[in-house]
Design goal:
Length: about 575
């Protein structure tokens, strides 16, 4: 590691700060829909998604591949499905489909068997009896299914024999209820709204409808933090900016809550508190808690709410349409932060700008290309180093490529290295899996892995220069040569929606051979860095300070205690 001398160093471990969360907008076309509570709930867990225009289209029909994908996600087996995408595919008509891994996993788990002739018909609209059968198969509870009570509906005679027992079971367990006219309509297509209701009940039957049960005892809107008491112990959570709160028997999100309040809570994949369902009383037997996702609560910071009974006003939904978040107006976020920390008073009295201070941001990394994090008010580089204690960007460089006429073969691809300075006899290379990158970004990449090539620019026995094939064309001669980040060099990978992910080299090892590529895949550390030392369109609290980025949070937003101690 690099040691910094002759610098008065201030070490800060900083918690994400932004604007107060409010009632989540949800989808523009579900605000008056009967299934809104279920849709909002599953959206907060990122099990459901909408369309680019902000709609959910609740009355649109669902295809077989879409429904199977949702079931696999509800089983928390998406990563397994992604692995199966690399195979040939079980069904002949899913080889080229985006859903191949999900459909194959469903087949392995005996959720679906296709049509018996090697086809799955992925794009065909799923019917109500098919959807119910798939859900019941996914429960795998070992109970023997019977078709007793086959006349549950006026149209029970229309239910196919293969679906009859599943429909009976689903009705008994509350997955389905039928229509007000006492029909089931087995052959009708399933709508996206109906899917949301079915999936929520499906999660409930597995005991996974919510992540946490406890009492909300404190909420700090300016600092976006909440404290939930679980089994007598307090745990703190960061609030998602689209936190949605429902109450018992409430068809719409709440605009105000009473503290303390008992309820059930959900975390999104990033570990942020994204959903709350408040109730008058919790049962004696609570949910099983995944303690690995909990954080003991520190002393309450200034601005928190913790009284015997306090009314907390959340942003009204109409106001939220015009709300400025840290994403579309970082200045508003910083103003809230300054006010909460009384920074204006401190600067007025001291005149401090952060000059001469080095602040360690121990988080998810820092975007080295952010325009407001380039130089301090005194012209020094803001980000002086990037240390990565995770393995998110670790690339094995044990593979060897010998150049013949200016190129070598790597995984069946011709790699052009014509004119690249390399004093060693061969190049070393490996691949960065796009699975470690943000899903919303990697969806636009041409391949599932990114070629990384190492060269020895000075000494034949030391590989010190890295080339990243950012455009996936196998030609690294047009790529920027990167050294260890202290040189200040970085490159960018362009993903979905022309989003740019800036990447640095944080470590190059020659024994064993590997390289670590540093990036902020969560955006969390970069926003913290901006709060501290932004100097540009947005001004941070200490625009004269320099930053040391130490990445400890992996792509899931998790860090182990040993890694935190090392940081």
């Amino acid at each position: 590691m690099t040691f910094y001398k002759h610098i008065t160093t201030t070490l800060l471990i900083i918690i994400f700060i932004a604007v107060a969360p409010g009632v989540a907008l949800g989808f523009s076309d579900t605000r008056a829909h009967w299934a809104r509570p279920q849709i909002d709930h599953l959206k907060s867990r990122e099990l459901l998604s909408g369309y680019p225009d902000g709609t959910y289209r609740p009355d649109a029909f669902v295809s077989r591949e879409e429904f199977v994908t949702l079931v696999i996600k509800a089983l928390n087996k998406e990563s397994e499905a992604r692995q199966l995408e690399k195979g040939q595919g079980f069904f002949s008509d899913t080889h080229q489909r985006w859903s191949r891994g999900f459909v194959d996993l469903a087949q392995e788990l005996d959720i679906t068997a296709g049509d018996g002739m090697g086809n799955f018909h992925p794009q065909r609209i799923v019917t109500r009896q098919e959807a119910v059968t798939l859900l019941v198969n996914a429960l795998h509870n070992g109970e023997e299914l019977t078709d007793e009570g086959e006349n549950l509906f006026f149209d029970s005679g229309a239910i196919q024999d293969w679906a009859r027992a599943s429909v009976t079971y689903a009705h008994q367990r509350g997955i389905i209820k039928g229509f007000p006219d006492a029909t089931f309509r087995p052959g009708e297509p399933v709508t996206r709204a109906q899917v949301a209701v079915m999936l929520e009940q499906f999660l409930d039957l597995q005991g996974k409808k919510y992540h946490i049960a406890g009492t909300l005892t404190s909420i700090n809107l300016p600092l976006r933090q909440a404290v939930i008491e679980i089994y007598g112990q307090s745990h703190s959570f960061e609030l998602d900016e689209n936190l949605v709160v429902y109450g018992q028997n409430s068809p719409e999100p709440l605009t105000e809550i009473i503290i303390p309040s008992s309820g059930y809570f959900d975390l999104n994949p990033q570990g942020k508190l994204a959903y709350a369902y408040l109730v008058s009383d919790l049962p004696d037997s609570l949910l099983e808690i995944a303690t690995s996702r909990l954080t003991p609560s520190p002393a309450q910071p200034n601005g928190s709410v913790r009284t015997a009974s306090t009314l907390v006003q959340l942003a009204d939904e109409t106001d939220k349409d015009m709300a400025q978040t840290s994403l579309n107006n970082p200045g508003t976020s910083l103003d809230n932060t300054r006010e909460a920390m009384r920074i204006y008073e401190f600067v007025e009295e001291s005149g401090a700008t952060g000059l001469g201070q080095l602040v360690a941001v121990i988080d998810s990394g820092i975007d080295p290309g952010h325009p407001d994090l380039q130089t301090t008010v005194d012209g020094y580089s803001t980000l002086v180093d990037f240390i990565d204690l995770t393995d998110d960007g670790k690339v094995d460089l044990s593979r060897i490529g010998t150049s013949v006429n200016g190129s070598f073969q790597a995984a069946g691809q011709n790699v052009n290295v014509q004119g690249i300075t390399n004093t060693a006899d061969e190049f070393r290379y490996g691949f960065l899996s796009t699975s470690v990158l943000p899903a919303s970004f990697s969806a636009g990449l041409p391949t599932e892995q990114i070629l990384v090539v190492a060269a020895a620019s000075q000494y034949w026995y030391i590989y010190d220069t890295i080339y990243i094939d950012t455009d996936g064309d196998g030609d690294i001669t047009d790529e920027k040569p990167l050294k260890r980040y202290t040189s200040g060099e970085y490159t960018g990978i362009i993903g979905a929606g022309d989003k740019r992910l800036n990447v640095v080299v944080t470590e190059i090892s020659n024994d064993p051979f590997y390289v670590k590529l540093g990036f902020d895949g969560l955006g969390h550390g970069t926003e913290v860095a901006g709060v501290v030392a932004a100097n540009g369109e947005v001004e941070g609290i200490a625009p004269g300070a320099q930053l040391l980025g130490i990445k400890i949070l992996n792509r899931l937003g998790q860090a182990s205690i040993p890694v935190l101690q090392e940081a």
